[in-house]
Design brief:
Peroxidase, domain 2; single chain; mainly alpha
């Protein structure tokens, strides 16, 4: 719906019969690049693949509770800080904002361009552009949408092959929304 690359997804996978958020080992929005890299490396993913996959934030959004601590961060564009401050002052629960403030409904490399301009909403997103470990990759993707999309497709396929259940582990569901 938002565009982006096409890639083949393996089918015929077995689903697990236990699903707990505590089993998910994804880095949080306040992670450093090093911590996020360690989490991805533990699953066999490279720094390039991590930076690529975080580019999915080009179509994502976040609740204020995930970034409100950044509203005084000097590493955030002052105009964005002011805008997010207004959004988060709402009395209606936990408001949200797009992670890509420019082309939020389009899958493109704009996310990388925005974080170079210090317009990263989440701490981890902004750190991608600031940390010497990842800043070169960010610049490369910001300057080459086709390279980002190719890398994204490859990283998604690789990630889809992590922890595949085989044999009698898991089940092939009759209805994907419920256990058999």
């Amino acid at each position: 719906m938002a565009g982006g690359p096409r890639y083949d997804v393996a089918t015929g996978r077995r689903d697990g019969v236990v699903s707990r958020t505590s089993d998910v080992a994804l880095p949080g929005p306040g992670s450093t690049v090093s911590a996020a890299q360690q989490a991805f490396a533990a699953k066999g993913m490279s720094l390039n693949e991590m930076v690529t996959l975080l580019g999915a934030h080009t179509v994502g959004f976040a609740h204020c509770s995930f970034f409100s601590d950044r509203l005084n961060d000097p590493n955030m564009d002052p105009a964005l800080r002011a805008k997010l401050g207004r959004v988060c002052r709402s009395k209606n629960g936990d408001p949200t904002t797009f992670l890509d403030q420019n082309t939020s409904m389009v899958f493109d490399n704009e996310f990388y361009k925005q974080i170079i301009l210090k317009r990263g909403v989440l701490f981890i997103d902004q750190q991608l552009a600031l940390d010497p470990l990842s800043s070169g990759l960010v610049s490369g993707f910001a300057g080459n949408d086709a390279a980002f999309e190719r890398s994204f497709a490859d990283a998604m396929v690789k990630m889809g092959n992590i922890g595949v259940l085989v044999g009698s582990d898991g089940q092939i569901r009759k209805n994907c929304r419920i256990f058999n």
